[in-house]
Design brief:
The protein is an alpha/beta fold. The chain folds into four domains: about 120 residues, Rossmann fold, CATH 3.40.50; about 160 residues, P-loop containing nucleotide triphosphate hydrolases (Rossmann fold); about 70 residues, Helicase, Ruva Protein, domain 3; about 80 residues, Orthogonal Bundle (Arc Repressor Mutant, subunit A), CATH 1.10.10. It is built from 19 helices and 16 strands. Helix 1 links the parallel strand 1 and strand 2. Helix 2 packs parallel to helix 3 and helix 18 packs across helix 19. It is extended, with a radius of gyration of 33 Å.
Length: about 475
């Protein structure tokens, strides 16, 4: 049995809400204003609150604000007959579970009360889990990656990590660094695709004072910043040919030459990554063959998340623990995650879990809370027609809606020629006329339509003498 606090200055509304609460087997505590509500919160334990917005004295928003400042805030649903964008946003910002408009039906209220009780969770921070950027996954593909990391971690061998965008290539690079003999040194990551070509040389190799306009002081590049550690060159496949030659020299000779300076020896491990097919780039002449083989000493390929089904739910649960508020996946939500295609791979999954953790008030995330996974997709629109989002309706209504759409499309493609439209729909012309009248469709008159029988076929042949 839960203890509900009902706060409303309207006695009739208070009693009506209390009746539903008691009928569901819970205890109802009543307050006719905000000040009394706060006193009751101090006097006895309250599990959930139904809070009116407009009240004399302390209004609902102010009461909600003061509850929000308490160490332990009960679950609160705001009920108001005057919902506005402003008070809805402010109520949700202050931690309201929901914001509903009066009047509210008995059945709807019962559902709200149950959802409020289901949302009561332990709000203590989750226990410290795995460290950030940990490799999560028990699929065969990830087990192979983990074993490879263990074998090569203590060497200085150059590694090339390949895989689609968002598969976690930098996570793998960090794992190699953290488990290797250079873990006490720095890990420096450079996204080669994000730096303009004219600045990349200085970014990687550094420059000396006066080397070019704006070079007011010496600067160490990424190679020297990663000294005795690991340099991660992300998206190396986007690097220009001229810079590739300088990278090759640095890898072979273990020296870098700052812009305007002299060669400097380096002690650094290099890990490179790309989402591109480098062998294809070699064949097309956009990537140096010698650099490819210099990087491709130990290759690690990360398959897309859609090919690692066993990793999807463990990754989702891991990302939920990183948000800071304990959330759980229901069975239907887990199934929904597995069915999704994940074109954005692990990065998309991480963003989806952060979004769900913020938006879902209850302890459990359900499949309905993940509807945005479909909404975020780019809809395919054959023939330039919009994808239809059917409303929740019965079968006859849905079929009628579909029939009307097909008729309108046939008329459009036939240039409003009803005989041609009937042929496209595989119905006779007379039936088409009946349906046009039923749906209120009035296309322009057919121009020079030939006579036709009721089958919608060619004009009937005259067999008798002309009269």
């Amino acid at each position: 049995m839960a203890n509900f606090l009902i706060v409303d200055d309207d006695e009739t509304m208070r009693e009506a809400l209390a009746e539903v609460v008691r009928d569901l087997g819970h205890r109802a505590c009543l307050a006719h204003n905000g000040a009394l509500a706060l006193e009751l919160l101090d006097a006895e334990p309250v599990d959930a609150v139904l809070l009116d917005l407009r009240m004399p004295g302390l209004d609902g928003i102010e009461v909600l604000r003061r509850m929000h400042e308490r160490p332990a805030m009960p679950v609160v649903t705001v009920l108001t007959a005057h919902a506005t964008a402003s008070n809805t946003i402010e109520a949700m910002r202050l931690g309201a579970f929901d914001h509903l408009t009066k009047p509210i039906g008995r059945h709807e209220l019962a559902q709200v009360l149950q959802r409020m009780l289901d949302s009561i969770v332990d709000t203590q921070p989750p226990a410290a889990g795995a460290e950030p950027d940990t490799l999560i996954g028990s699929s065969d593909a990830m087990r192979t990656v983990q074993k490879t990391i263990g074998v090569l971690a203590d060497s200085d061998t150059t590694v090339l990590i390949t895989g689609e965008t968002g598969t976690g290539k930098e996570v793998v690079a960090r794992a190699i660094h953290e488990h290797g003999q250079r873990h006490r040194g720095p890990f420096v990551a450079v996204n080669c695709a994000a730096i303009p070509a004219e600045l990349l040389e200085s970014e990687l190799f550094g420059h000396v004072r006066g080397a070019f306009t704006g070079a007011s002081a010496d600067r160490d590049g990424a190679f020297r910043q990663a000294e005795h550690g690991t340099l991660f060159l992300d998206e190396i496949g986007d690097m220009g040919i001229a810079m590739q030659a300088k990278i090759l020299r640095a890898l072979q000779e273990r020296v870098v030459t700052p812009v305007g300076g002299k060669p400097i020896p380096i002690q650094v491990r290099v890990i490179a990554a790309t989402h591109r097919d480098l062998l294809r780039a070699v064949r097309e002449g956009s990537f140096r063959e010698d650099l490819y083989y210099r990087l491709h000493v130990v290759p690690i390929h990360l398959p897309p998340l859609s090919a690692r089904i066993a990793d999807i739910v463990p990754l989702a649960e891991y990302f939920l623990t990183r948000v800071g508020v304990r959330k759980r996946l229901s069975a239907d939500a887990a199934a929904r995650l597995i069915r999704h295609g994940w074109p954005g791979n692990v990065r998309e999954l991480k963003n989806a879990m952060e979004r769900a953790a913020v938006m879902v008030r209850g302890e459990y995330i359900h499949a309905t809370d993940l509807a945005f996974l479909e909404e975020d997709r780019e809809p395919s629109e054959p023939f330039g027609e919009p994808v239809i989002d059917w409303p929740d309706e019965d079968l006859p209504s849905a079929l009628a809606r579909l029939e009307e759409m097909l008729i309108r499309r046939a008329l459009k493609y036939s240039g409003n020629n009803r005989t041609d439209a009937a042929r496209r729909l595989n119905i006779n012309r007379q039936l088409l006329y009946v349906k046009l009248k039923r749906y209120g469709i009035e296309p322009p008159s057919d121009e020079a339509e030939p006579d036709a029988d009721d089958s919608g076929g060619p004009p009937a042949r005259r067999t008798g003498p002309a009269s």
